[in-house]
Amino acid sequence: MRRSALQVAEAHKIDPSDMQWYAAFHNTTHHPHLHMIVYSKKLKQGYLTNKAIEKMRGMFANDIFRNEQYHLFALQTKMRDELKDEVKERLDELYRRSQEKISCDDKMHGLFEKLIGQLKNHQGKMLYGYLVKPIKETVDTIVAELAKDSRVADFYAEWNNINREKLSTYYDKPKPDIPLEENKEFRSIKNSVVRTAVLMMKLSEQSQQPISAPEINSAVTGLVSILGRLFSTSCQKQYARLNTQIDSKLKSKIAEKKLAQGLKIDRSYKEDIDEDEEQEQGFGLSL
Known about the structure:
This protein is about 65% helix and about 5% strand. It is mainly alpha-helical. The protein has a two-stranded antiparallel ribbon. The C terminus is likely disordered.
């Protein structure tokens, strides 16, 4: 109480130098609590509104239950990050299907087609905060549709459970859960939706772009060059085969003349002739 005296005086609309307070702490096992009286030395000072009461309650709760609240905030942040990662996977899958031109007739695809059409006429920044109301409504509808995914719904339900526990420290009555598309804690999801729609729009524009004449000429020139190299390589192989056949026939005639004259043929020379004939037969089969 001493640590928060200035904030208490401000909440009661009392000058700190005029504030008087008394407090009694009841340390019961099931419900530790504090009874407090605050007033001003000057009778015309001091009044309390409901908003000021909530502010003081939050101030004391943050001070007294700091460790417990820190734990809840950490859990809630973890759930929020996991939910965003799950949404990102769904959006990446939609973009991949768009890249591969996988046809689908589901509601989500139709909503993105609508959003892309709206964004084509948008002149400002491609961020949710800069969009006009009709486009924002389409984005909100897409987020609401994403929230129906089973894993996204599970993460959001857990986030709400932690949020209710956290808020119970500050409020007597529980605050109702709000839909994902209305929750400012998850506003970045809306920008992710817009970003995905912009990528899909650019992909569509690229696929519809006509091929220019220089690009066609370059492709044709490249094809002719490849065919020319293939033809040149084929001719070189044919020429090598013909030379091999001629050498084989010449060697054979020389060998026949030597035999007719009664001369002895060198064994290695005869093996070369046989090898050439085998190669010639092999070439004949491959042709």
